[in-house]
Write a structure and sequence with these properties.
This protein has helices at residues 52-64, 93-108, 115-123, 170-176, 181-199, 203-217, 226-236, 255-272, and strands spanning 2-6, 11-17, 21-26, 34-41, 77-83, 137-140, 145-149, 156-161, 239-242, 248-253, 277-279. By secondary structure, the protein is of the alpha+beta class. Strands 2-3-6-7 form a four-stranded antiparallel β-sheet. Helix 1 (52-64) packs parallel to helix 2 (93-108), helix 2 (93-108) packs across helix 3 (115-123) and helix 5 (181-199) packs antiparallel against helix 6 (203-217). The longest helix is centred in the C-terminal third of the chain and has 19 residues, at 181-199.
Length: 280
């Protein structure tokens, strides 16, 4: 059984709603970064030592199964995980690994678990990203709950690592961030606005929401050269998104304008960051 789970390159919005309720609006999935999970029975040549979170995931899944006597004991399975999602960069590497294991195990044992049930299980390991969905979701990462699926608004991404030498501890960062009451109210407005913007195909309003969330994030995790990309986004009337707990950031561009802006954006990125550039 092989399952591929693709990374989320940052978030469109991420913050806290009134009452200290953490949330995010997920980005589309990356074509470049993924985690691959392989499981099966008894192939010891493929067995490998998994990281701590993956081991906890296997234990959690097995404890969730009813009627274990009727099933292949999980100790008889081999597990292998590999991928190219960089760690500590805000690309949901942990979520992709955990959800890949849960999805593969659910299929192997034919549990019938829904995607949201897998998110619920993943969230009991640590806050999770909705990597099993390719669309944009309003999502509670602490509970692994889908609050709302946003209307489909086509867009393309150009993104990059703004600081290759920095790694971010997502859990440690989340414990340090303390949003003010006014910021929580601002995020509540942004949530309502982006839901309306996607429903109305309103790119101007959509981009405003992304840019504002990225701007607020600068109070807690500054991106190297942020204002250069922010100025480009404002000048060219496109969206700016960031990995709110990482170092990646990029631009959101409506498809009809992407071809005309891609080279211009790439030139700015190469000049100021001199790093690999990805487009989705």
């Amino acid at each position: 059984m092989i399952v591929d789970v693709y990374a989320k390159p940052g978030e469109l919005i991420q913050g806290v709603l009134p009452g200290n309720k953490r949330f995010l609006v997920s980005n589309k999935s990356s074509r470049f970064f993924k985690s691959r999970t392989e499981i099966g029975i008894g192939n010891l040549t493929k067995q490998e030592t998994l990281n701590y979170k993956s081991q906890k995931t296997i234990e959690l899944f097995w404890s969730s199964l009813p009627d274990k006597k009727q099933k292949v004991d999980i100790s008889k399975l081999y597990f292998k995980q590999e991928g190219n999602i960089p760690v500590g960069k805000g690309l949901s590497s942990s979520s992709a690994d955990v959800l890949g294991l849960l999805d593969a195990l659910s299929r192997f044992y034919n549990t019938g678990y829904s995607t949201e049930q897998l998110y619920n299980l993943a969230a009991s390991i640590e806050p999770t990203d909705p990597c099993l969905h390719t669309c944009n979701l309003l999502f509670n990462q602490d509970k692994g709950e889908i609050t709302q699926a946003l209307s489909s608004l086509p867009y393309q991404l150009i993104y990059f690592d703004s600081d290759e030498n920095t790694l971010v501890d997502t859990i440690a960062l989340s414990q340090l961030i303390n949003y003010s009451e006014s910021q929580q109210q601002e995020y509540e407005r942004l949530c309502k606005q982006i839901i309306c913007a996607t429903a109305d195909n309103d790119y101007e309003s959509f981009n405003f929401c992304l840019n504002k969330s990225a701007e607020i994030n600068q109070f807690f995790l500054q991106k190297k050269g942020f204002h250069v990309l922010q100025d480009f986004a404002i000048e060219n009337k496109v969206g700016l998104f960031v990995a709110h707990s990482g170092t990646y950031m990029g631009l959101v561009i409506e498809p009809s304008r992407f071809k005309s802006l891609e080279a211009k954006a790439a030139e700015v990125i190469k000049k100021n960051w001199n790093t690999a550039i990805y487009t989705d």
